[in-house]
Design a protein that fits this description.
globular; 6-stranded mixed beta sheet; alpha/beta; Rossmann fold; about 130 residues; about 50% helix; 6 strands
Length: about 130
């Protein structure tokens, strides 16, 4: 299953390792993480315009793109969240995010949300 990552999720990955992937994969199948080009742009901006800690987290997140995460190009949109919602709805993929507002909007659009709790991946809105 394709799992699109937003900026908040990538920033957390810049500071902690993922745990519990096997449990999620047993429920959903093999996970293929992708990062939209707009998210990569936001990470580059954070890397160059943030304080030392956030800059380091963004740099680490950027280093994951290409090695463990595939970069994908989405149609132009002013906001990354809008592009993520449109793409995930039309391509039936999950979204990994920590952003509470984005999670709410994705759930309203019937998109599967993967998030973190206690440094473990969890399904934010399990299928019924």
């Amino acid at each position: 299953m394709e799992v699109m990552c937003d900026t908040s999720f990538m920033m957390v990955l810049g500071s902690i390792p993922l745990r519990n992937i096997e449990s999620i994969e047993s429920s959903l199948g093999s996970l293929h993480f992708t990062v939209p080009n707009k998210v990569a742009d936001e990470l580059r901006h954070l890397e160059s315009h943030s304080g030392p800690k956030r800059s380091r987290m963004a740099r680490t997140a950027l280093s994951l793109i290409g090695s463990k995460f595939n970069l994908i190009s989405l149609p132009h949109s002013k906001y990354a969240d809008e592009a993520i919602i449109k793409y995930s709805s039309s391509h039936n993929c999950a979204v990994a995010t920590i952003d509470r507002e984005l999670k709410t909007r994705l759930i309203k659009n019937k998109v599967l949300v993967i998030t973190l709790r206690d440094n473990k991946l969890i399904i934010g809105n399990p299928k019924e």
